[in-house]
Design goal:
Order of helices and strands: HHHHHHHH
Strand content: under 5%
Number of strands: 0
Shape: globular
Radius of gyration: 15 Å
CATH topology: UraD-like
Structural class: mainly alpha
Number of helices: 8
Length: 145
Amino acid sequence: MRELPRKLTAEELEELFEGRTALVERLAKVEDPLGSADEVIARLNEEEKVEALAAHPAIGAPRLSARSAAEQGTDADPAILSELSYLNQVYEEKFGFRFVVFVAGRPKREILEVLRERIASTRERELETGCRELIAIARDRWTRT
């Protein structure tokens, strides 16, 4: 298990966050990017936060990065995958950005329950929650590699 680094390149951060976004660009310029990610993301405007969330793959998506596929696991009950797909779409239509959750090997059935609960939330709360989850994922990815 690795400790959080003092400095990371944009390329390293791009892998952790699934894309080269304004968040990644800003984190690459600071010392301790994963340690200060909460403060950096808080200074992003809404469009930049949505961009960061959009870079992350949807839960249950058919095409995932190798890292996301490993995190999301292989429990592929067609009924669960179908409902995840539908609720992901409902979530994105309601909030205008992708549902992001720290999976950490949890079964998709459990993630489906989280998604159902979060759909009832407010847009402001979900944007904040999604960003926190995105940072938790990146930190976990760093310490696991």
